[in-house]
Amino acid sequence: DKWPKQCLPMGKIVGGLSEEAAKHLSLKEGTPVAQGGPDAFVGMLGLGCVRPGQLALITGSSHLHLAVSSNDATSQGIWGAYKGAPLPGMCFAEGGQSSTGSMLRWCRDLLWGDKMSYSEADAMAEGVEAGCEGLVMLETFQGSRTPVTDAQAKGAMIGLTLGHSKAHIWRAALESVCFGT
């Protein structure tokens, strides 16, 4: 009973607000209620990414690249093609990683707690050369989405030495998001 009996396209009117909901929301009873969708697909539409050849980069706790196509071509390591979701007559392919923004928050909090803003941490990392003097981080702290789907994949820091600082670790975390996405 938890799952709907039928899946409807995003934006389809599914009913109207009940009297109780309308009162709670200070809206009129019967105000149309539309089918929602996954946050990334809603974000893609909000960016205006609706025509073949367009690509949306959605960032948050994870990162996604969503590409619009008029055909259902697939490729190894890419999720989809999702036919008709979220737009009828279009196909969508997806790539990205499961843990990017959430991994950066974890790393920032571990290194500095909430005493350091992201901008301040980024400024410190600017003093570290690209490549972090051999320190490499894998961003797969919550598994891997693409190009290899593996829910059991783990994150890692490789090459850590006593010569590395918090700024090195932060830069390695940022670089891991760039390379992993």
TrEMBL record:
One GO CC annotation, please?
cytoplasm
Could you tell me which PROSITE patterns the record lists for this protein?
FGGY_KINASES_2 (PS00445)
**One annotated GO molecular function:** D-ribulokinase activity
- Is DNA-binding among the key words of this record? no
Q: Where is the Carbohydrate kinase FGGY C-terminal domain?
A: 56-181
Gene Ontology biological process terms from the UniProt entry: pentose metabolic process
Per UniProt, which keywords does this protein have? Kinase, Transferase
> Is Kinase one of the keywords?
yes
InterPro entries cross-referenced by the UniProt entry: ATPase_NBD, Carb_kinase_FGGY_CS, FGGY_C
Any Pfam family from its record, for instance, is FGGY_C
Give the protein name, as stated in the record.
Carbohydrate kinase FGGY C-terminal domain-containing protein
- The organism named in the record is Hemiselmis andersenii (Cryptophyte alga)
The lineage, from the top, is:
Eukaryota, Cryptophyceae, Cryptomonadales, Hemiselmidaceae, Hemiselmis
